[in-house]
Design a protein that fits this description.
heterodimer, A: alpha+beta, DNA polymerase, domain 1, 5-stranded mixed β-sheet, 15% strand, B: Aldehyde Oxidoreductase, domain 4, Aldehyde Oxidoreductase, domain 3, Aldehyde Oxidoreductase, domain 4, 7-stranded mixed β-sheet, 17 helices, 31 strands, binds FE2/S2 (inorganic) cluster
Chain lengths: 154, 740
């Protein structure tokens, strides 16, 4: 069947023959390689995307269920060549080492800040507890997000 | 030595600054290319058929059904191997494809190349294989009884007749830990059309992969090129070959590029693990609190093939007593061959296992003496001028054992927790432990390990720096796995030359000599040292050629006069400096394991504060503080990142990470059942950096990135013991170990 996705504002079509996840379509059919595959079980969050505005693990969504829906991947987080503030903060605060988890944290973290511009430490940790990072121990990632929170809320 | 040179005015983004990574932007935008992102024109897909058993004879193997499938281009088994049939970086004992006997779960029986991934996977399954089950050997004591010894390493020093009045004996165990780097194994091999091949895959040392590939492919060295590629972490998992030989064999057989990408379960099968260990310890001290004697027998489960086990067991023995004075030491260490998955390198490399055991012993001896555990450690701590208890070698470089202990002791303790927020209770949300049932515990531990390669290994790293019209290019074969070496190499070159625009080019094996492995906490000192020397050489050559006395991003200066800009200099001729950098060397052990086996050492200390629910056996690490011996922090932000990440891996081993291997079969090869610490498991970490400059590291820097993993595990367990009074001789500590 044909799956039509609106990825980062662009309409893209993929021909799929077998039941296949949104992650596989993004990576293998559309060659949007920023979305990562580290478990395919919904455990690591490396494959995080926004589907119709909701944060999902794209490895757990069937491509057919995303038909005609808008998808935001990590490639769509920066706009007009400008990094999202969280992307810059992750670089500046040591939130990136190997970087394999980073696309997932960028998508999930941007979504958190969109919904809650001044999360508490507990809210940050809970919101991102579905994203595994093996390198940083999460400290640099937390400091990156903290750096973006409005001062008066701290 | 020229360990502390600096030229001209201070350059931006030089050493000592928290410079952000140069690969940060591609990583945050999703454009950084990892091994699993590589494609080639006209490429085929590879797949492996793995054995589902731990020990068996292969009684029937027929590849015809797979070969008959449309879209299948090659199926290879042991009989198809063109040259040397065994690989391994120390002992070549691992069949490239199963040799008629299966010796561990997940061993590769056959490999397939096909048009697409689905066909490749189906073809791999279509191969007919029948097994005759054999009894798996899975216990290390039994392996020792059967003399299945990969290597015995010893430390015998002192007088066997001497004993202390206070004796503490115990047996410790550490379970199998997986590095679980987030990037699964993946790679691509591309035939060059002239009989040679280029391979891109997970690695920590391209030149050692190259040696093995040349032998197993039957090619000349110049016909094989091993390329670095983006890696989603390593932590030791990429130290041994995983899929590279298979990719090359398929590419050479089909004449087409071949790509393989593993899922998480296959990744668990495809890379080496941290050795599970059983360690028998006996400590003896006098009543005044002096350590008199340590006897230990260390059994490390090497699994089916040797991998780096011979070096791991030597390290386990070397650090079996910790950074403590002890005149009589008798340690027997064995790496044993079993039918468990092969073990190899993981951050800490043998010093993690003995670190857990020896620090637990130190607490017990202190308790037996009625001494404060830190006072007991301080009383026995070694530093420069002392000898290493296991090898008898004199410590000549800074070793701030006392300072790390005292610093961490002086850090403020967190307040008693009163919050009833479930996220701040053991077990977290979904569990109902009331705050009143929670018991707090505090524990300390020290970590100790060698830096760079030991035992007389010819340890070197090459680097080449060339002048470009805009700045400097650093060429290296050193592997950036995410740790931040790339940033540090640039900072060193900047500080030496005053030229700001520096980039690192990661060469393949045909373009530059070896940098040695990205392991043993060695690249900052080894490749960093090579870059330091190459930058000095290039700078001096430029000074001489232009009669200049200063360098900057603008060019060469004589006094206040610019004698040549960088583009002008490059028009004149090529300027480049190539260095092969060696450390001062080490010795092979004598028959008693004595000698100057190691080049240098680092120490660390951790204090863990835990909250425990003793009824359900649940633990929450509330806070963890650490002091680390780093020489000089070339990039403080990156140092903190290594400390935090390493500490979390140690917390993982302390309370949650265990690869469950049942009769040789891995039962939890996925992230649902192999638990990695999440954001909610991460306590706040405060770190004090002890900066006592090394005489041989660039600008005084020391390697240190394994240390945080070594001391965090025993500190957490000590804190749980403090809260519960349980002996806890095994990690990870499971709920039943506390509650039952
Ligand atoms: S790949 Fe989807 S959650 Fe891990
Ligand atoms: S930076 Fe490597 S997994 Fe997060």
């Amino acid at each position: 069947m044909n799956v039509r996705l609106i990825v980062n504002g662009e309409v893209l079509n993929a021909e799929v023959t077998t039941p296949i996840s949104l992650l596989k379509v993004l990576r293998d059919e559309l060659h949007l390689l920023g979305t990562k595959d580290a478990c395919e079980q919904g455990e690591c969050g490396s494959c995080s995307v926004l589907l119709d505005g909701d944060l999902v693990c794209s490895c757990l969504v069937m491509a057919a269920d995303a038909h005609d829906l808008p998808v935001t991947t990590v490639e769509g987080i920066a706009s007009d060549g400008e990094l999202h503030p969280l992307q810059q903060a992750l670089i500046d605060h040591g939130g990136v080492q190997c970087g394999f988890c980073t696309p997932g944290f960028v998508v999930a973290g941007a979504d958190l800040l969109e919904r809650n511009p001044s999360p508490t430490s507990g809210e940050i940790r809970e919101a991102l507890s579905g994203n595994l990072c093996r390198c940083t121990g999460y400290g640099g990632i937390e400091r990156a997000i903290q750096s973006l929170i409005e001062v008066e809320e701290r | 030595m020229t360990a502390r040179t600096q030229t001209g005015s201070k350059v931006r983004k030089g050493v000592g600054e928290s410079v952000p990574r140069p690969d940060g932007i591609p990583k945050v935008t999703g454009h950084f290319a990892y091994a699993s992102d590589l494609y080639a024109q006209d490429m085929l897909w590879g797949a492996a058929r793995r054995a589902p058993v731990a020990h068996a004879g292969v009684t029937h193997l027929d590849v015809a059904p797979a070969l008959a499938m449309a879209g299948v281009h090659a199926v290879l088994t042991y009989d198809d191997l063109p040259a040397k049939r065994f690989q391994g970086q120390i002992i070549t004992d691992q069949p490239v494809l199963a040799d008629g006997t299966i010796r561990y779960w997940g061993e590769v029986v056959a490999i397939v190349a096909a048009d697409d991934p689905t066909t490749a996977a189906e073809a791999a399954q279509a191969i007919e294989v029948a097994y005759e089950p054999l009894d798996p050997l899975t216990d290390v004591d039994e392996a020792l009884a059967r003399d299945e010894v990969l290597r015995k390493a010893v430390s015998y020093r002192g007088d066997r007749e001497v004993h202390g009045e206070v004796v503490v004996e115990a047996t410790y165990e550490t379970a199998t830990q997986d590095q679980a780097p987030l990037g699964n194994e993946a790679g691509i091999a591309v035939p060059d059309g002239a009989g040679g091949v280029d391979v891109y895959g997970p690695t920590q040392w391209t030149h050692v992969d190259h040696e093995q590939l040349v032998d197993c492919l039957g090619l000349r060295p110049e016909e094989v090129r091993v390329h670095p590629t983006g890696l989603g972490g390593a932590f030791g998992a990429r130290e041994d070959l995983s899929l590279q030989t298979h990719l090359c064999l398929l590419a050479l057989r089909t004449g087409r590029p071949v790509r393989m990408v593993f899922g998480r379960e296959e990744s668990f099968a495809a890379h080496v693990k941290r050795h599970a260990a059983r360690m028998y310890y006996r400590h003896e001290a006098d009543r005044a609190g002096n350590l008199i004697r340590v006897d230990a027998k260390l059994l490390l489960d090497g699994g089916a093939y040797s991998m780096t086990s011979p070096a791991v067991v030597a390290n386990a023995v070397g650090f079996a007593v910790g950074p403590y004075r002890c005149p009589n030491v008798f340690v027997d260490g064995y790496a044993l061959r079993t039918n468990n998955p092969p073990s190899g390198a993981m951050r800490g490399f043998g010093a993690v296992q003995t670190g857990f055991a020896v620090e637990s012993q130190m607490d017990r001896v202190a308790a037996e003496l009625g001494m404060d555990p830190l006072e007991f450690r301080l009383k026995n701590a070694i530093g420069p001028g002392d000898v290493l208890a296991t090898t008898g070698q004199l410590i000549t470089e800074p070793l701030p054992t006392r300072e790390v202990i005292e610093s961490v002791r002086a850090m403020p303790l967190p307040d008693d927790e009163t919050s009833t927020d479930a996220r701040e209770l053991p077990g977290g949300t979904g569990l109902t432990t009331p705050r009143s049932a929670v018991v707090r515990g505090v524990g300390y531990a020290v970590g100790f390990k060698n830096l760079a390669f030991s035992e007389g290994f010819d340890d070197y790293a090459e680097a080449r720096i060339t002048l470009t019209p805009v700045g400097l290019d650093i060429h290296t074969a050193a592997i950036e796995v995410g740790q931040g070496m790339v940033t540090v190499l640039e900072q060193i070159a900047r500080s030496v030359t005053g030229i700001e625009d520096v980039r690192v080019i990661f060469d393949d094996t045909s373009q530059i000599g070896s940098a040695g492995s990205t392991s043993a906490s060695r690249q900052t000192q080894m490749s960093g040292g090579a870059v330091l020397k190459a930058a000095e050489k290039l700078r001096d050559e430029l000074f001489e050629y232009f009669g200049a006395d200063a360098l900057s991003s603008e060019g060469m200066w004589r006094g206040s006069q610019l004698v040549a800009s960088l583009p002008e200099a490059c028009l004149d001729r090529d300027f480049s400096a190539h260095v092969r950098h060696r450390h001062q060397g080490s010795e092979e052990p004598d028959e008693n394991g004595q000698g100057n086996l190691h080049v240098d050492f680092a120490v660390s200390a951790h204090r863990a504060v835990v909250d425990v629910d003793p009824v359900l056996g649940l633990v929450r690490v509330v806070k963890i503080d650490t002091a680390q011996d780093v020489g000089f922090a070339l990039n403080p932000m990156s140092v903190i990142g290594q400390i935090e990440g390493g500490t979390m891996q140690g917390i993982g081993l302390a309370v949650m990470e265990e690869l469950i291997v049942d009769h040789g079969i891995v039962r939890n090869p996925n992230f649902t059942d192999y638990l990695l610490p999440t954001f909610l498991d991460a306590p706040p970490i405060e770190a004090v950096l002890i900066e006592q400059p090394s005489s041989w590291g660039p600008f005084g820097a020391k390697g240190f990135a394994e240390l945080p993993t070594i001391s965090s595990t025993p500190a957490v367990v000590a804190a749980i013991r403090n809260a519960t009074g349980k002996a806890l001789t095994r990690v990870p500590v499971r709920p039943e170990d506390i509650a039952l």
